[in-house]
């Protein structure tokens, strides 16, 4: 029985490892010297090399793009949290007039195709003189990050037993005090999950970034990767190294922050 | 109304207003603006901006390129989502019996889902390379031109999409499976249900609602998908992978016809809303 379980577990792990091969293959390519790229028969390159990473670090816009992506994704997350956390609390707990209308706007916003809003947003950014700035990307990303965050956080806040808040009110605490010392600590894991998903979505975002940026002043990682230059032939090794760098935050999240990622992903779908 | 209720209403309004204003400016306003744009001929480089009514939509009705994009979008969506649901369900059932190494298993599973889709596109470009790509090597040294052959490009694109989104379906189903109490299976065993009967009469019915939700999420995302095909094939070869989103993008920002591109964008929005509406109706008829 025990042995059968071990065999099953190993089998499932092997299957999932095979599924991840396209990524592992890119990791291998990023360490393979150009001369060996055509010799696909070996699992590990005979002479592993860092030249591709060196090329990306020294002669590409990737370092700058990594900084831009980190900045834009962090600011998007912070802005969406600042706007979304109070709104989520109000939806979950407070009697606000027109609540259903607001909820409808939130849900409809999550279904908005980016390709539909990209043209008016482009005209808006141009009119505001925001083209090729972090600000334009943070604002545009907020259009999908905020509804997602409000939706997730309202769900997490509803899960907190109302009696805890009620008890604090009876002790004479005001609304803000209760928010800070009762609600916020209890919903912190939910906030972490929602923030993580928002950051990931902003890090991966391509269409807005591709449309609103024009130079390395604001080009994010996905845009830099899509525009990766090759003069005479495609520099597969350099592209592989750039891809690995571009996927570092997602990989870290999947491995080290998995619990929060799963909680956030599942919360949106399993409830209601 | 007590003083506290009145205070709560005010606090509520104050809490919601910033988010509401932001959404009004960033989604509602652009949503209305794009409708207005779609009724105009706007070609900024020539300084053209005039009202043309429903002319763009009338043109689309007879536009072969548009109908091709509709067909590609629907085939891509149906085949991708179908494969994702089937494979995701199988993986979730396999994971349900997993005892050791669940964390590692989830890491391996979610990796493909968490990557930026542009990275996924680059991974598959290299895998599909006709001369040195891993896919052709594994197929025994054929020189299939996966992304350049009109018969192979759409299947190649769909494979890449299934690769990156199957994990999402698997995770949702797996999470639902974990919430099934062991007593349910105990009862089925006591009643003499075999493995197949348990799957058919216990597990699958319990997964029904989460599968419907996964179906909705994945269908909406597949209809809106853009990054993968844009970076992988740009809609080529010969338009065989040109979805509505790619057609809209190339009208908007490559041939710079803002009004016409906006009209294609509005059609995509309509399609998404129709699917969401049909889904909501189906849920109401058969509440899960």
Essential attributes:
heterodimer; A: 272 residues; mainly alpha; MetI-like fold; 76% helix; B: 288 residues; two-stranded antiparallel sheet; 12 helices; globular
Number of strands of chain A: 0
The helix fraction of chain A, in percent, is over 70%
What is the tally of beta strands of chain B?
2
- Stated plainly, the CATH topology of chain A is called MetI-like fold
Please give the count of helices of chain B.
12
CATH class categorisation of the domain at 71-238 in chain B? Mainly Alpha
Largest sheet of chain B: 2 strands, antiparallel
Rg of chain B, nearest Å: 24 Å
What oligomeric state do these chains adopt? Answer: heterodimer
The percentage helix of chain B is over 70%
Structural class determined from secondary elements of chain B: mainly alpha
Uncertain segments of chain B? none
| CATH architectural type of chain A | Orthogonal Bundle
The main pleated sheet of chain A reads as: none
Distance between the termini of chain B: 38 Å
Residue-averaged pLDDT of chain A, rounded? 91
């Amino acid at each position: 029985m025990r042995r059968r379980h071990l065999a099953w577990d190993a089998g499932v792990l092997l299957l999932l490892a095979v599924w991840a091969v396209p990524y592992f293959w890119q990791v291998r390519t990023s360490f393979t010297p150009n001369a060996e790229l055509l010799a696909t028969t070996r699992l590990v390159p005979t002479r592993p090399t860092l030249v591709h990473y060196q090329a990306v670090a020294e002669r590409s816009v990737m370092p700058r793009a990594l900084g831009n992506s980190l900045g834009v994704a962090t600011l998007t997350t912070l802005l969406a949290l600042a706007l979304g956390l109070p709104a989520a609390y109000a939806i979950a707990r407070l009697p606000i007039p027109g609540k259903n209308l607001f909820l409808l706007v939130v849900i409809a916003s999550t279904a908005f195709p980016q390709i539909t809003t990209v043209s008016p947003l482009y005209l808006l950014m141009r009119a505001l003189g925001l083209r090729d700035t972090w600000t334009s990307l943070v604002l545009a990303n907020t259009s999908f990050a905020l509804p997602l965050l409000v939706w997730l956080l309202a769900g997490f806040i509803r899960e907190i037993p109302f009696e805890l808040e009620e008890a604090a009110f009876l002790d004479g605490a005001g609304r803000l005090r209760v928010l800070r010392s009762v609600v916020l600590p209890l919903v912190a894991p939910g906030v972490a999950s929602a923030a993580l998903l928002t950051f990931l979505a902003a890090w991966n975002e391509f269409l807005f970034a591709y449309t609103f940026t024009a130079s390395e002043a604001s080009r994010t990682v996905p845009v830099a990767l899509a525009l990766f230059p090759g003069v005479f032939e495609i520099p597969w090794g350099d592209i592989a190294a750039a891809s690995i760098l571009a996927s570092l935050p997602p990989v870290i999240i999947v491995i080290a922050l998995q619990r929060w990622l799963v909680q956030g992903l599942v919360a949106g779908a399993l409830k209601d | 109304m007590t003083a506290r209720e009145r205070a709560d209403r005010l606090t509520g309004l104050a809490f919601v207003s910033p988010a509401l204003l932001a959404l009004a400016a960033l989604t509602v306003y652009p949503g209305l603006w794009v409708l207005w744009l779609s009724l105009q001929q706007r070609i900024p480089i020539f300084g053209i901006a005039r009202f043309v009514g429903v002319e763009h939509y009338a043109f689309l009705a007879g536009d072969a390129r548009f109908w091709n994009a509709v067909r590609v979008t629907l085939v891509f969506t149906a085949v991708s989502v179908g494969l994702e649901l089937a494979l995701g369900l199988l993986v979730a059932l396999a994971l349900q019996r997993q005892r050791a190494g669940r964390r590692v298993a989830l890491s391996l599973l979610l990796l493909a889902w968490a990557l930026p889709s542009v990275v996924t596109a680059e991974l598959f470009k290299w895998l599909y390379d006709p001369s040195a790509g891993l896919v052709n090597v594994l197929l025994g040294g054929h020189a299939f031109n996966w992304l350049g052959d009109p018969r192979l490009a759409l299947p190649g694109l769909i494979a890449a999409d299934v690769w990156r989104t199957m994990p999402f379906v698997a995770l949702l189903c797996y999470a639902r499976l974990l919430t099934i109490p062991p007593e349910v299976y105990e009862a089925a065993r006591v009643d003499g249900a075999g493995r197949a009967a348990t799957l058919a009469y216990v597990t699958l019915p319990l997964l029904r609602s989460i599968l419907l939700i996964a179906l909705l999420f994945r269908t909406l995302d597949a209809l809106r998908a853009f990054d993968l095909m844009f970076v992988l094939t740009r809609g080529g070869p010969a338009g065989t992978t040109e979805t509505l989103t790619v057609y809209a993008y190339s009208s908007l920002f490559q041939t710079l016809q803002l009004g016409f591109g906006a009209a294609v964008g509005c059609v995509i929005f309509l399609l998404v809303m129709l699917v969401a509406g049909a889904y909501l109706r189906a849920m109401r008829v058969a509440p899960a």
